[in-house]
Design brief:
The protein is of the alpha/beta class. The chain contains 16 helices and 14 strands. The protein binds ligand F0G.
Length: about 450
């Protein structure tokens, strides 16, 4: 297109109204929820950037596909369509549907990880880490050094530190490393992409030690777009080709179709190893369902199959990545510290930089997330010490997380530019009074994934 403005490559066909709550109503809601934004009613939120997972708008083609869903218990036509699309995109021969990404993780780690094992990843997502640890394994994050520094601008800040990977495997012994994972894009590290070159280097290390490599592929299409934009030799390649090349370097993947499947629910586990896949299918039957539906309705399989094709369209990816960068540029120009460069699905505010007066064990990113909601009804999510810190067994301060971030995740095809302009206004307004924001103490927490249910009190 000859014009600078990158437009949404769709028009709106069906809308949902937003309740415009008042600050007073939101303050009450916060008290009720124990200052945990997961405890809010979604109707209390004006712009919901809690997650980009399952919150996007589906296309009319996806809805039409749902009407064609085949709900047969075994051998549904919708499954074979889903399987075909996943095979075409990933090249993996074994395709196991699951109700979402974490089900694929649980099944994969149940068949691969034993007590005392080590699983390296660039950065484990919270459920991935929890599923490794639940099996008695250690989840080790080996993202490159720059990936832990919000201010450093690099094209592929999600890359794995290949030297650290080799050292970790050598130290543990390859027999204690059942698999290596790479998360594309690196969600917990700021939505940062991984380069093809880095994937190749990780593959070479895996080959050397004869270890399988699995991608956590939730945002594979966004990663492919970044490779197209930023890596030499890929500018003229189609996102679909680039994605296929990424998958060709791995032995399998876990996938949450709630992200780059453009669907409200769904996921899969895919691989080339038939024996491993059969073991996984046996577990699938135990908790998820028969291998041709895996906990999904036939219509969900249709929605995912269509979503996986739509997500690789260039116009969509161009708009998607541009609209995230738009929010990042707006707040960054106003002096708000963010992880640079912006990731594909979200903008991450650096709460440690914005609130240097709040120590990590008083949860600066939680405090900022609460304030964004109270002030403007914008719900983001804390990715800091609440999510990734470790509680002290003797009741002392938590061991802090590497970064204190508030993620503003952008649901796909859901909000317009004026919604995003509003979010920028709220963020800039909150940042202007940053020194007034106070920290929190955690008064209730669960042993796993505590950020979902913890309750807080103001310090
Ligand atoms: N891996 C990554 C990188 C993820 O971002 C997620 C989910 C999962 C695995 C698990 O998938 O939710 O379908 O079970 N991320 C969401 C988020 C929840 O908000 O980033 P799931």
């Amino acid at each position: 297109m000859p014009y600078r403005t990158i437009i949404e490559p769709f028009r709106i066909h069906s809308v949902q109204s937003i309740d415009l709550t008042t600050e007073e109503q939101r303050t009450e809601a916060l008290e009720r929820a124990g200052y945990n934004l997961f405890g809010l009613h979604a109707d209390e939120v004006i712009i919901d950037l809690l997650t980009d997972s399952g919150t996007g708008a589906m296309s009319s083609e996806q809805w039409a596909g749902m009407m064609r869903g085949d709900e047969s218990y075994a051998g549904s036509r919708s499954f074979y369509r889903f399987e075909e699309v996943v095979k075409q995109i990933t090249g993996f021969s074994e395709v196991i549907p699951t109700h979402q990404g974490r089900a694929a993780e649980r099944i994969l780690f149940s068949v691969m990880v034993d007590e005392g094992d080590i699983v390296p990843n660039n950065t484990h997502f919270d459920t991935t880490r929890a599923n490794v640890e639940y099996r008695g394994g250690a989840a080790v994050d080996l993202v490159i050094e720059e990936g832990r520094d919000p201010g450093t601008v690099l094209p592929f800040k999600g890359n794995m530190d290949v030297a650290a990977l080799r050292a970790t495997i050598e130290e543990a012994g390859a027999d204690r490393v059942p698999l290596v994972m790479v998360t594309v894009t690196n969600n917990s590290g700021g939505g940062q992409p991984v380069s093809m070159e880095n994937l190749r280097a990780v593959r070479a290390v895996c080959d050397e030690f004869e270890l399988p490599l699995f991608l956590d592929a939730c945002r594979f299409a966004e990663n492919a777009w970044f490779i197209k934009q930023r890596e030499e030799g890929y500018a003229d390649r189609a996102p679909r080709d680039i994605a296929r090349e990424m998958f060709s370097l791995a032995d399998g993947c876990t996938m949450s179709a709630k992200k780059d499947g453009l669907s409200n629910i769904g996921g899969f586990l895919a691989m080339n190893d038939r024996t491993l896949a059969d073991e996984a299918r046996n577990l699938l039957i135990l908790t998820e369902g028969f291998p041709t539906y895996g906990g999904l309705a036939g219509y969900d399989l249709e929605a995912v199959a269509t979503g996986l094709q739509e997500v690789l369209e260039e116009d969509y990816l161009r708009y998607r990545i541009r609209s995230t960068a738009y929010l990042a540029e707006k707040i960054s120009a106003a002096g708000v510290p963010i992880v640079q460069p912006p990731g594909g699905h979200a903008v991450y505010i650096d709460a440690a930089a914005m609130l240097p007066h709040i120590p990590p064990h008083e949860y600066p990113a939680q405090a900022l997330a609460v304030e964004l909601f109270r002030t403007g009804g914008v719900r983001g999510v804390e990715i800091g010490t609440v999510m990734f810190g470790k509680p002290d067994p003797d009741g002392g301060p938590d061991e802090p997380a590497a970064m204190e971030l508030v993620r503003l995740a952008i649901p796909r095809r859901t909000y317009t530019q004026s919604h995003i302009d509003y979010v920028a206004e709220v963020v800039i307004d909150v940042a202007a009074d940053a020194e007034e924001i106070r920290g929190y103490r955690m008064v209730e927490q669960a042993p796993w994934l505590r950020h979902f249910t913890a309750r807080f009190e103001g310090v």
